[in-house]
Design a protein that fits this description.
The protein is an alpha/beta fold. Helix content is 37%, strand content 16%. It has ten helices and ten strands. α6 runs parallel beside α7. The longest helix has 17 residues.
Length: 300
């Protein structure tokens, strides 16, 4: 991360904590909900299967920038499916950087070739070892491993949603993150139980067991892009929601925190680690602040 960007985020954080501000800093543009997979835990794919027009996506990027957002995510659906008006995902990342976004990340399922060196992080969904990942996402594990090996930059971060199917495979994903040359880190979430996927939800005790495993992996050198001090809050869902400093824009609609907010009661069962991390950070909790500084400087 550039020093100028680091100082910008430090100033923003201090101002937000001191004034209890709610101005957003992180924004996500949903470029499409079209996806080539039908994962067991996903409730938002192929609702419309529409590729958003380039001109609209660029307008939404500008809206977020004008709101003061400087950390941008491109998300789907599957982001690498996005092509429009002679532009592709790489063009969007480059334009976002030129527009002034300081950190630009992309979320992908990893089934398409990964040629995106301009992105700060590529959050690649990996949901366990070959057996359990394929149960959740179809026969894609080997394709993903090949795409990781052939990626054109070392900017991949595994993105694992822990659920009832894959909860025992955390060490495998951590070990892969240590071994793969193009992988910087691994970031975890707990499954957020939309009504049609409640059977995948973890209990508080199961979340604690998973957090204990993650901590052990961290102690053994696994590059985990999460904050250990936040785990107790995640286990019992005792962190403030929604995160006012994060927004999502999809087809012109802006949602605070994420698309989950439209599901009654779902915020109370939020499994997104970043939501807990950001809300506690901006509440002025000292340990998350110190861990966040260390983590971001190390991995971005």
């Amino acid at each position: 991360m550039k020093l100028s960007s680091f100082l910008y985020f430090v100033r923003y954080g201090l101002k937000t904590i001191i004034t209890k501000g709610e101005d957003p800093i992180l924004g996500t543009v949903i470029v499409t909900d079209k996806c080539n997979l039908h994962c067991k835990h996903c409730s938002v794919n192929n609702k419309t299967a529409v590729i958003r027009p380039y001109i609209k996506v660029k307008e939404e990027m500008k809206i977020l920038y004008d709101m003061g957002i400087r950390i941008l995510f491109f998300c789907g659906g599957e982001t690498f499916l996005w092509e429009n008006s002679g532009k592709n995902l790489r063009d969007l990342v480059i334009e976002a950087k030129e527009m002034g976004f300081m950190i630009v990340n992309v979320v992908t399922n990893g089934t398409y070739p990964i040629d995106l060196p301009e992105a700060d992080l590529i959050l690649l969904s990996l949901d366990g070892d070959r057996e359990h990942h394929n149960i959740i996402r179809g026969d894609t594990y080997d394709t993903i491993m090949d795409n990781i090996e052939n990626a054109t930059a070392e900017n991949i971060c595994f993105y694992m949603a822990i659920n009832q199917i894959n909860k025992e495979t955390i060490p495998h994903v951590c070990q892969l993150a240590k071994e793969k040359k193009n992988v910087k880190a691994v970031s975890f979430n707990f499954h957020t139980p939309y009504p049609d996927t409640r059977y995948l939800k973890l209990s508080a005790e199961e979340k604690k067991q998973c957090c204990d495993v993650i901590c052990k992996q961290m102690d053994e050198g696994a590059p985990v892009f999460n904050l250990r001090s936040v785990f107790p809050y995640l286990i019992e869902n005792r962190f403030p929601v929604p995160c006012k400093q994060c927004v999502v824009i999809e087809n012109g609609k802006i949602s605070i925190c994420g698309r989950c907010i439209d599901e009654p009661g779902l915020c109370d069962e939020c499994g997104y680690f970043f939501v807990a991390e950001y809300t506690l950070l901006f509440s002025g909790k000292i340990r998350p602040i110190l861990e966040m500084l260390h983590t971001y400087l190390r991995y971005i």
